[in-house]
UniProtKB/TrEMBL annotation:
Residues 794-953 form the Integrase catalytic domain. This is RNA-directed DNA polymerase. Its EC number is 2.7.7.49. It comes from Adineta steineri. InterPro entries: DNA/RNA_pol_sf, Integrase_cat-core, Integrase_H2C2, Peptidase_aspartic_dom_sf, Retrovirus_Pol_polyprotein, Rev_trsase/Diguanyl_cyclase, RNaseH-like_sf, RNaseH_sf. Keywords: Endonuclease, Hydrolase, Nuclease, Nucleotidyltransferase, Protease, RNA-directed DNA polymerase, Transferase. The lineage of its organism: Eukaryota, Metazoa, Spiralia, Gnathifera, Rotifera.
Length: 1076
């Protein structure tokens, strides 16, 4: 707060506007009726002078010229002496006189800040404006001009600025949708030179401080030593007061250096009403404590809530996009090996200090605060302090702590927010603590009193500790009511023996991390436990750094596999934080979907929250490895008996014999089925009457078919006649059995034809295989896809039917473009292409309106695919508002919009040939390539799109002079143009169907045109498969409910979901099958 000492004032006053906006009435006493001024009330104002505190009764008034006035009552009470030459004041407190410097300006305290030239502020943007004022050089407080805020929509905020040679720069934001002009010489702000700074209140929560001091010293047995330590802590009580946050002063603020990239922004995440209220409460609390402020920044990162262990909520910000463009800070972290070795130098007394919310105590550079902006459902805010999740938070915090504690480097070690003080004697240790705590107090830091927590430290040295010890934990972690159920049985004894073996055999030593190599974290998870191993690969040798494992809770055991694997990573990061912060990290996991969790959302809330919490770490990449190479979380029994090779061989032979017997045809069953088959019985009678002329043979109670296997061979082969009741059983063995491999008709027929026979055998085999559901789902057809070409009838004129599609993403250009929106007219083949930074719905709507509709008018029909950038509420509302029909092509069938797809395949190679790959300027060549396409002849219409649109040939740079035309009347040119356009359009209408028919004949050649009826059962093709072993077609059958060939609407028999598919992606189900 800014205060002014006024010898002309009898009392101390404070402005009502300078008080906190929350709970103001709690500390304002009722106003006195005899007061001559309009006084709200009074309060006790605390003034901090170094380590001393003073207080004075101050009256609260409205619209005071400064925030606080200290009058004669304060001057008399503390015998204040004002030294003008030394620019300082001195106060007498408890018999001691204390000197305070101030930065008061001898000239007038207020100066106008005027613009130096005309300023044009674009809509929805913030610009920096140079202003002049009558101050040579100073650090000043600048407030918005009252008249400007009343008469202008421009937004200006209070700011502390540095004036150099009567000039400084201010930021102004234009919230309107139009340009705003600020004339030269306008007073934008009022400049006030700062005076003394006083604290509103320095009272500490004495009860909380006493509790912490008692907890910190309760382990000291010597009463003299305990009293001495308590005395040191009492001198620095403010460090232990965690009732309210504090921000360090006079430290290097955090800087955010980014690449040349447009400001990333995101929309707020959707949330429940309860979470919105909780988010609002947290943000208001941060605003109250000054940790955040309202923002008008073009940056916007989404904020969300993460639950704590106690059930409360913590706000985190998803800074993925900002971190991707942030330049890495390579400030080193302390070497762990050297740190631990240094502590072994004969020191006997140690103290460990921990910083309370360490990152929040570091301020952010004023010019970079807008980059930390985060968005919630209630508005946009930006941090005044170092936020968690920013890429360079750990090295920045380490730099600050190393700088301020440089005088204590001989007896202290700093690792991020942990400080260790070490000494050889108790007296020396007290002196060291006093020095270090004094420095922390000077810079207004705040400590976090350590928490006592019992840890099973052996798990750092034992891999799979949690899984091995799980049986022991099961009986030792019983509640008080269930203590009677304690049972020490074989699993507990076995776990105890394994732990004993680990603790009594080598090696148990871990290595120290090497700062020159990345660390490798390998994690795994199961329903029993989660764990991980931290390693480094140095010179081809693997060094173990840390083991972590823990048993999963009953709630965690219900997690999905992807959530369990992500939880394993997060828990390892929490335990291994000192080893991981500031280092390059490579993560190995056996769960492939987690490989991109740090670059994009996984569409799983738990996993996405964990990825946000991991943003402060320098994770280089996440690599998928096979299951056999990851860290196992299941204990291995040492007494497991390994079967011998001979016993294994016997088991395999026995299993194979059972397999063959189970799948062979039983002769007795064949006899019985032949006896029940009337057709076979008729054949047996014929053979019995005239065996010499029969083509069958009846022997040993079985009927055989006699066939000549080769044309010139007289020998006939006997083939067993299969009764009709056993045909499916036989085909089950020779087709669906694993040893048969689900091969096709030809291979199956070759296996059977020399052993068995029945009428129409090949046709039966064909029908059986066609009805095999597995074959229909997995087999790849070598024939052309069914469905013939259905040309789109050409429209009657230009821009009645247009198609549009996105092409990209390409490499981002310096102008931020990554995609191309292509629009084509189905009559003239005219192309419009716009380079855009993304493919969102808003970008699509703006490009369609600005680049097409505003230039060529409103089309009758717009054709596009069903991507989310085209099929959304914004585009639907735009079509209704402007007045055109939006039609969508069939999913995964780009031929429906084939004209625009063909152009995409044409222009990409042309741009690739022209671009400068070093500068990546492909978007500069987009317009010339489109012009070349539009002015070239089209094979379908036989005219160029330019001719069909403008009725004349284009004039190219290499063409000669324009041929002169003479028209006697003013409208002769118009009449001539109408005739030319009519003739050209007529020829184009005739040429287009003829060419379309040629294309159709070529496409339809040797292609089936299958038609399906309503209620037909079919399978539909699956797209976007990542695993080659997945079925090519849907697992569950689909039923056709509507048809408009070649497009059909099908409904899933199980889920009842309806889908629109093209005939190309349909495979008929020929009938039920007995195969499995």
């Amino acid at each position: 707060m800014k205060a002014m000492i006024d010898t002309g004032a009898n009392r101390a006053f404070i402005s009502y506007q300078a008080l906190p906006i929350f709970n103001t009435q709690q500390f304002i006493n009722p106003k006195q009726k005899s007061a001559s001024l309009a006084i709200f009330g009074s309060l006790d104002l605390h003034v901090v002078t170094g380590d001393m505190s003073t207080s004075i009764k101050a009256y609260v008034v409205k619209n005071l010229c400064v925030e606080c006035i200290l009058g004669m009552d304060f001057i008399s009470k503390y015998k204040v002496i004002i030294d003008v030459d030394e620019r300082a004041i001195s106060l007498c407190i408890d018999g001691k006189r204390i000197m305070m410097k101030f930065n008061g300006n001898r000239e007038k305290s207020r100066h106008p800040a005027r613009t130096t030239h005309h300023i044009y502020v674009p809509p929805k943007q913030m610009v920096s404006i140079p202003v002049q004022m009558a101050i040579p050089s100073a650090e000043v407080l600048i407030r918005p001009s009252y008249q400007l805020t009343r008469q202008s929509p421009m937004i200006l905020l209070n700011k502390v600025a540095v004036v150099d040679q009567q000039t400084t720069c201010l930021s102004i934001y234009n919230p309107t949708s139009y340009y705003y002009t600020i004339p030269k010489g306008i007073v934008l702000r009022t400049t006030t030179v700062p005076t003394l700074s006083f604290s509103k209140c320095i009272s500490v929560d004495q009860q909380l401080v006493d509790h912490y001091i008692c907890k910190l010293t309760r382990h000291i047995k010597d009463p003299v030593q305990k009293e001495a330590v308590e005395a040191v802590l009492r001198q620095h009580e403010k460090l232990l007061d965690t009732s309210k946050p504090s921000i360090a002063v006079n430290v290097k603020p955090h800087e955010i250096k980014i690449l040349d990239h447009p400001p990333p922004s995101s929309r707020p995440y959707s949330s429940t009403p309860h979470k919105k209220e909780e988010m609002y409460r947290i943000v208001q609390e941060l605003l109250y404590h000054g940790l955040v402020r309202k923002s008008y920044s073009p940056y916007a990162s989404p904020a969300l809530l993460v639950s704590k262990h106690d059930g409360s909520w913590r706000m985190v910000v998803d800074y993925k996009k900002l971190n991707n463009i942030t330049i890495k800070d390579n400030h080193p972290l302390p070497n762990m090996e050297q740190t631990i070795r240094r502590l072994g130098g004969g020191y006997q007394f140690f103290s460990k200090l921990d910083m309370k919310s360490g990152f929040w105590q570091i301020p952010i550079k004023e010019e970079d605060k807008h980059k930390t902006a985060f968005v919630t459902a209630d508005g946009l805010y930006e941090w005044n302090v170092l936020a968690q999740g920013l890429r360079n938070s750990p090295p920045s915090f380490q730099r600050v702590m190393g700088d301020i504690l440089q005088p204590c480097r001989q007896f202290s070690l700093v690792y991020l927010d942990d400080i260790v003080v070490f000494s050889r004697s108790f007296g020396e240790h007290l002196d060291h603590l006093q020095q270090l705590l004094s420095i922390l107090s000077e810079y207004n830091f705040q400590l976090n009193p350590p928490k006592c927590k019992g840890l099973s430290w052996y798990r750092k040295c034992i891999p799979r500790f949690a899984s091995i010890a799980a049986p022991i934990h099961k009986v030792t972690n019983l509640t008080k009511e269930n203590k009677k159920n304690f049972r020490w049985e074989e699993p507990q004894h076995e776990a105890f023996l394994q732990l004993q073996k680990f603790l009594t055999t080598s090696p148990l030593l871990l290595d120290y991390p090497n700062d020159n190599y990345p660390v490798i974290l390998t994690t795994d998870a199961s329903k029993v436990g989660i764990g991980g191993t931290l390693q480094q690969k140095i010179g081809g040798e693997i060094k173990n750094l840390y083991y972590h494992s823990q048993v999963t809770s009953p709630i965690q055991q219900r997690y999905d596999p992807i959530e369990l694997e992500a939880l394993a990573i997060w828990m390892c990061f929490q335990r291994m934080r000192p080893y991981l912060l500031g280092r390059s990290i490579i993560i190995y996991t056996d769960y492939c979907p987690l490989c991109n969790m740090m670059n994009s959302t996984v569409k799983n809330r738990r996993v996405d929250r964990i990825s946000i919490l991991l943003q402060e770490y320098n994770i280089e990449k996440i690599i998928h490895i096979k299951v056999t190479t990851t860290t196992t979380t299941l204990p291995v029994k040492d007494n497991t008996t390994i079967p011998s090779a001979r016993s294994k061989s016997a088991q395999i032979e026995q299993h194979s014999a059972q397999f063959v017997v189970n799948n062979s045809l039983d002769i007795e069953r064949i006899k019985m089925e032949q006896a029940n088959d009337p057709i076979i019985q008729e054949k047996i009678k014929e053979v019995t009457k005239n065996p010499s002329k029969a083509t069958y043979e009846f022997k040993d109670g079985l009927l055989y078919k006699l066939l000549t296997m080769q044309a010139k061979c007289s020998t006939k082969k006997k083939l067993l006649y299969v009764p009709s009741s056993m045909i499916n059983d036989l085909l089950q063995v020779y087709h669906s059995n694993p040893l048969s491999g689900h091969f096709g008709v030809h291979r199956t027929y070759l296996k059977i034809k020399n052993k068995y026979w029945w009428p129409d055998m090949k046709q039966s085999i064909t029908q059986y295989i066609q009805s095999c559901l597995l074959c229909q789902q997995f087999n790849v057809s070598r024939m052309k896809k069914p469905g013939r070409l259905q040309p789109i009838p050409p429209p009657d004129g230009p821009f009645q039917l247009i198609g549009m599609d996105y092409c990209g993403p390409f490499k981002q250009t310096p102008r931020g473009n990554q995609y191309v929106l292509c629009i084509t007219d189905y009559f003239t083949r005219w192309i419009v292409a716009a380079a855009v930074p993304d493919c969102t719905a808003q970008t699509t709507a703006e490009a369609l309106f600005n680049d097409f509709i505003c230039k060529y008018g409103v089309p009758a029909i717009v054709l596009s695919d069903q991507g989310t950038h085209f099929h959304n509420q914004l585009m639907e509302a735009m079509s209704k508002l402007i007045g055109y029909d939006h039609t969508y092509s069939t999913t995964y069938h780009p031929q429906s919009n084939g004209m625009i797809e063909r152009f995409n395949a044409t222009f990409v190679p042309q741009i690739a040939k022209l671009q400068d790959r070093e500068n990546n300027n492909w978007d500069e060549f987009l317009a010339p390539v489109v012009f070349a396409y539009n002015t070239g002849g089209h094979s379908t219409t036989q005219y160029s799109p330019f001719q069909l649109l403008y009725g004349r040939e284009p004039r190219l740079p290499a063409d000669g002079p324009i041929t002169s035309f003479t028209f006697r009347k003013p409208n002769d040119y118009y009449e001539q143009l109408k005739k030319s356009m009519k003739l050209i359009h007529t020829h184009a209408r005739q040429n287009t169907p003829r060419k379309q028919q040629q294309y159709k004949n070529r496409y339809d050649k040797q292609r089936f045109d299958l038609h399906y009826a309503i209620n037909d059962r079919v399978l539909i093709r699956k797209h976007g498969m990542k695993n080659k072993l997945e079925p090519k077609f849907s697992i569950t059958p689909q039923v056709i409910i509507r048809e408009q060939h070649p497009v059909y609407i099908v409904r899933d028999e199980t889920t009842k979901i309806e889908t629109q598919v093209h005939a190309n992606d349909i495979r008929p189900i020929y009938g039920s099958t007995t195969s499995k």
